């Protein structure tokens, strides 16, 4: 499916369907006013007859309008003019795709880019549009046997966005480039997360990493650190997590070289990749246990981001680590009461084997110091406490650097991919005290998201670091269970921003 930018000459546009927005005040934008004039007042007659009110998310499907260059038209209500913001603008595309899915269309032209939204230029209008369209069309049907059912994406040949000026064409085409690369990376990430755990295991993730390097041989190289390598390195916390599984732990390191300038920052992304989390000896209850395949969402996000930067050829030097393991119950499983010596030399008393993600990440945080990183981000479905604190709408962020948090917040504001900073006050660290080891792997029964990050921060003192807890945002439950691909929008924008201002 192709995306195109076109100037507003309706008579030259041949499309199966036009999509317009109308406000409650019925002051028509340029293109819909032109449609009304050419059709001898057809749109205004609909309004007078009270067939359309312009209420937000209201829709009306029209066809065979006299003297109009498209056989079908979708009118979308935009509500009050002052209330239209980026979030509402995105919802208009979601609404339109619900209608379009039930139609046989090859070419669609959107005129929603005409709508005036404070603080949002044509670049963001087009990029937001592509993101919402691609998300709305996404489905994971890899294991469905009904091969006769056509996919909507196979029907649509092209989607056009109409703009006013030549400058808008330049901005719009740039938005298409970035929007498509980010949407492609998000799809790759969601596909990985949605894969069943009997297929997507640590070896599978390593295989996909190798495939990525083959797709981008000029800028991506791969190192695979296997179980024995990790043992030899002293990554005892990491390897202990996978001891109860027949699928041995593997750490896949994806290296992207986008700049030869020695002054360019080294950025490391670490993704928790527990491909199935049974909880180990501290076994989880059976309810929603199937969703524990999503415990590798951090790794899938990192994989998607590496694909995006390679596709866009961003001038960054980036290392992505897929920290893959499987936390199962077996005769070799690590136990509550065990004391593990981490790669850093610090010792950890295990109180709960279901707090396994931080054990993997703590050794990786030590390992990546070899890359002399300027910034390290770890992304993990780490704690149920994050869901309790922030729900399913917001990603939790904890960091040892205020400037890094500000950069992440700026990216959040730009994309609408929400985050919230939580504190790392010194008072929380005492909850990890152990009388027989350097620390425990869980705190007491409160502030679980914070104490988990406090644990990780002990291994991230040599560089600027932030932890993103995506336990609430990485997937949705219920009938439409599946990966959301979050926070790829946030982090891809963060990397784009860094690429424009990444000289030390």
Helix amount: 25-40%
User: What characteristic shape results from the CA principal axes?
Assistant: elongated
Report the total helices: 15
Main beta sheet, described?
8 strands, mixed
Average pLDDT, all residues: 94
Unreliable stretches (pLDDT < 50, length at least 5) are none
Number of strands: 19
Please give the oligomerization state of what you see. Answer: single chain
Strand percentage lies at: 15-25%
Radius of gyration: 25 Å
Provide the structure class.
alpha/beta
How do the strands line up in the largest sheet?
Answer: 7-8-10-9-13-17-14-15
Distance between the termini: 40 Å
Notable characteristics:
504 residues; alpha/beta
Characterise this structure.
This protein has 504 residues and is an alpha/beta fold. The protein has 15 helices and 19 strands. It has helices at 30-38, 42-48, 86-100, 122-137, 152-155, 166-194, 202-215, 227-233, 236-241, 297-312, 357-367, 384-390, 402-415, 448-457, 488-500, and strands at 2-7, 15-22, 59-63, 70-77, 107-110, 158-163, 220-225, 250-257, 266-277, 317-327, 339-341, 347-349, 375-380, 395-399, 419-421, 439-440, 464-469, 475-476, 482-483. The protein has an eight-stranded mixed beta sheet, with helices on both faces. Strands 1-6-5-2-4-3 form a six-stranded mixed beta sheet. The chain is elongated. The model has no long low-confidence stretch (mean pLDDT 94).
């Amino acid at each position: 499916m192709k995306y195109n930018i076109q100037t507003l000459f309706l008579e030259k546009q041949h499309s199966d369907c036009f999509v317009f927005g109308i406000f409650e005040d019925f002051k028509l934008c340029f293109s819909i006013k032109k449609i009304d004039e050419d059709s001898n007042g057809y749109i205004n007659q609909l309004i007078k007859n009270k067939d359309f009110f312009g209420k937000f998310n209201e829709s009306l499907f029209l066809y065979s309008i006299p003297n109009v260059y498209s056989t079908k038209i979708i009118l979308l209500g935009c509500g009050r003019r002052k209330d239209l913001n980026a979030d509402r603008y995105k919802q208009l595309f979601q609404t339109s795709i619900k209608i379009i899915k039930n139609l046989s269309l090859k070419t669609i032209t959107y005129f929603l880019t005409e709508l005036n939204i404070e603080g949002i230029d044509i670049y963001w209008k087009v990029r937001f549009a592509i993101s919402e369209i691609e998300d709305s069309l996404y489905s994971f049907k890899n294991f469905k046997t009904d091969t006769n059912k056509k996919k909507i994406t196979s029907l649509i040949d092209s989607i056009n966005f109409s703009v006013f000026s030549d400058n808008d064409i330049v901005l719009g085409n740039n938005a298409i480039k970035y929007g498509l690369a980010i949407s492609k990376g998000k799809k790759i990430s969601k596909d990985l997360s949605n894969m069943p755990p009997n297929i997507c295991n640590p070896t599978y993730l390593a295989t996909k990493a190798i495939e990525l390097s083959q797709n981008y041989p000029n800028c991506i190289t791969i190192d695979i650190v296997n179980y024995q390598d990790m043992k030899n390195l002293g990554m005892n916390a990491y390897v202990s997590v996978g001891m109860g599984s027949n699928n041995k732990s593997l750490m896949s390191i994806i290296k992207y070289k986008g700049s030869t300038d020695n002054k360019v920052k080294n950025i490391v992304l670490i993704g928790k990749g527990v491909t199935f989390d049974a909880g180990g000896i501290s076994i989880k209850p059976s309810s929603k246990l199937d969703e524990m395949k999503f415990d590798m969402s951090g790794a899938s996000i990192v994989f998607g981001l590496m694909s995006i930067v390679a596709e866009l050829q961003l001038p960054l030097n980036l290392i992505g680590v897929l920290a893959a393991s499987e936390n199962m119950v077996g005769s070799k499983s690590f136990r509550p009461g065990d004391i593990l010596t981490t790669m850093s030399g610090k010792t950890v008393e295990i109180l709960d084997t279901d707090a396994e993600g931080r054990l993997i990440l703590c050794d990786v945080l030590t390992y990546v110091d070899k890359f002399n990183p300027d910034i390290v981000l770890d992304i993990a479905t780490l704690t149920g406490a994050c869901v309790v604190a922030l729900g399913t709408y917001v990603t939790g962020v904890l960091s040892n650097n205020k400037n890094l948090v500000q950069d992440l917040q700026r990216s959040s504001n730009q994309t609408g991919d929400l985050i919230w900073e939580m504190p790392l006050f010194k008072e929380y660290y005492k909850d990890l005290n152990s009388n027989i080891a350097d620390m425990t792997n869980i705190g007491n029964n409160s502030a679980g998201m914070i104490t988990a990050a406090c644990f990780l921060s002990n291994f991230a003192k040599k560089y600027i670091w932030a932890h993103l807890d995506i336990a609430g945002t990485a997937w949705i439950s219920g009938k439409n269970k599946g990966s959301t691909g979050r926070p790829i929008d946030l982090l891809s924008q963060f990397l784009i921003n860094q690429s424009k201002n990444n000289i030390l």
